[in-house]
Write a structure and sequence with these properties.
The protein has helices spanning about 1-40, 50-85, 90-95, 100-140, 270-300, 320, 335-400, 410-435, 440-460, 470-499, and strands spanning about 155, 160-165, 175-180, 190-205, 210-225, 235-250. The protein is α+β, with helices and mostly antiparallel strands.
Length: about 500
């Protein structure tokens, strides 16, 4: 008993270090992937350090559930590989400790991680998604920083164009400025045109980024006032100034926070909320489908067939009384003009049915898309914790088989399995979103593919199989090579007997 406790402590000590290190490495890689994806939307907008840090925090929190499986796989391969490489695993087996017993303490830790992964996915990730969506919307609404280029017009402010001949990179002093202000007057049809020419000046945003602060030196203002009617005379005013200060509102440059409760989709809800949405969406889809296709079948396609569509209970007349049955073969004996009239009526009916269904069908498709997304997210809440367990059952036996630690072989194998899992997951979810597969089949497909691999590797590791041992392949190749002459001889004898 004392030996078992010592073994558990040794294995846990060997596992927790690589687990934490691999988890932080994985999260760093995922975070950098997020930064590179949205770097264009974040740079050049004057975002404060705390806003960027808040956005990264919510993004990392949202990716924890994805980092757990890969970190578990990597740490399990590295831990068992180090034990095998240092002959500690062989010593434990020689002492009568089986491989499943060696893995028991790690499996208990993995179960705890899977449970934590579920709570992160179910409770923390929806909150983070909602916050991140709100921040990304606010970032997308914020305009770029005010940056002047020598000799070019800056049009980043509504109804204002600014041209600067030169800007001092150290003091920020602007020289030879031309400012066109085309803001329209609500009381006039054409609005006014204001032009300001200055020798030098400073243009910057206020501290709260809500106003454009302008200080100009040595210039003139030109104001063209347009009258209400085009045939009236316009007025041009000119004023000179030595120093001119002005404030102008600049909407879109200040970072305004939007209420995150305005944002929501399937990724911002927990299991209970998704279950309620699935029930309501299912009823809504059935109702909209019946409302869309019921009148089509009843009034257009089978309107003359009383065997297919019947009248509602409250109808005053039956379809047979209102429209007599007309078979296709019965028009063969009709005159040509009557045939043309019937064909024209059929075309009008087909066009009317197409127009009647086009609007309602779009709403039905929207409801179906929401239903599929909710079903996918509901199943993902449960499949990700299971993926953590399966990746451990793959990594631990595989590390015991390859008996290689460090950062070489474990990294290659971990990335390979994770890429396979990710590709299968993306493919299954795509088919589920399109409605080709059910959400259960699409989301749980990677689990169904990797679970037999985990069972097979566990069986091979328990029986000390040489699955990844090069010597085993060399021996098998030698045996096959010896059998080849016999097979060739049997093949030649078979040909001779046929002749």
């Amino acid at each position: 008993m004392k030996l078992i406790k010592t073994v558990d402590k040794l294995i846990l000590k060997s596992y927790l270090g690589p687990m934490l290190a691999s988890f932080f490495i994985v999260m760093f890689v995922l975070m950098m992937n997020f930064v590179w994806r949205f770097i264009d939307e974040l740079v050049g907008k004057g975002l404060s350090f705390w806003v960027v840090l808040e956005l990264l925090w919510y993004a990392i929190t949202n990716m924890i559930s994805m980092g757990f499986p890969l970190a578990t796989l990597f740490a399990a391969i590295m831990t068992m590989g180090n034990l095998g490489e240092n002959y500690e695993l062989l010593a434990l087996k020689s002492a009568g400790v089986s491989l499943p017993r060696i893995m028991l303490s790690l499996f208990v830790v993995t179960m705890g991680m899977a449970t934590a992964s579920f709570f992160v996915t179910n409770n923390l990730a929806p909150y983070s998604n909602r916050k991140m969506m709100a921040i990304m919307y606010d970032v997308s609404q914020q305009k770029q920083e005010i940056e002047f280029q020598n000799g070019l017009f800056f049009n980043g402010i509504d109804n204002v164009s600014i041209r600067v001949e030169r800007q001092d990179p150290e003091s920020g002093l602007l020289t030879d400025l031309i400012i066109y202000n085309t803001a329209t007057d609500a009381e006039q049809r054409g609005g006014n045109m204001n032009v300001t020419v200055a020798d030098s000046g400073y243009i910057r945003l206020s501290d709260d980024r809500r106003f454009l602060v302008t200080t100009l030196y040595g210039g003139e203002n030109y104001s063209l006032t347009r009258d209400r009617d085009w045939y009236d005379d316009n007025t041009l005013d000119r004023t000179s100034f030595d120093v001119q200060h002005s404030l102008q509102k600049t909407p879109g440059y200040d970072f305004e926070r939007t209420d995150e409760n305005l944002f929501g989709n399937a990724t911002t809800k927990n299991v209970n909320q998704l279950g309620a949405d699935i029930d309501s969406l299912d009823r809504q889809v059935n109702a909209s489908t019946a409302q869309t296709y019921g009148p089509l079948l009843r009034d257009f396609i089978f309107s003359r067939d009383t065997m297919v569509v019947t009248h509602s209970p409250g109808a005053t007349r039956s379809l047979a009384e209102r429209r007599p049955t007309l078979l296709f073969d019965s028009i063969e004996g009709l005159p040509l003009a009557e045939k043309a009239r019937i064909y024209a009526s059929a075309r009008r009916t087909a066009g009317s049915s197409r127009n009647a269904i086009s609007f309602d069908e779009s709403q039905t498709k929207s409801d179906l898309n929401d239903l599929y997304r909710s079903q996918i997210e509901w199943n993902k809440k449960w499949s990700l914790p299971v993926a953590v367990i399966i990746f451990f059952l793959i990594g631990a036996p595989l590390g015991a088989i390859i008996r290689k630690g460090g950062l070489g072989m474990p990294v290659i194998i971990s990335v390979g399995f994770f890429v396979m899992y990710y590709i299968i997951s993306i493919t299954g979810e795509k088919l589920a979103r399109e409605g080709s597969w059910s959400a259960v089949a699409g989301v749980w497909l990677p689990t169904l593919v990797l679970f037999p691999i985990a069972v097979y590797l566990t069986y091979k590791a328990t029986n000390d199989s040489g699955l990844l041992n090069t010597e085993w392949y060399i021996i098998q190749y030698g045996k096959l090579k010896k059998k080849l002459p016999i097979l060739n001889k049997l093949k030649r004898n078979g040909r001779k007997s046929i002749k």
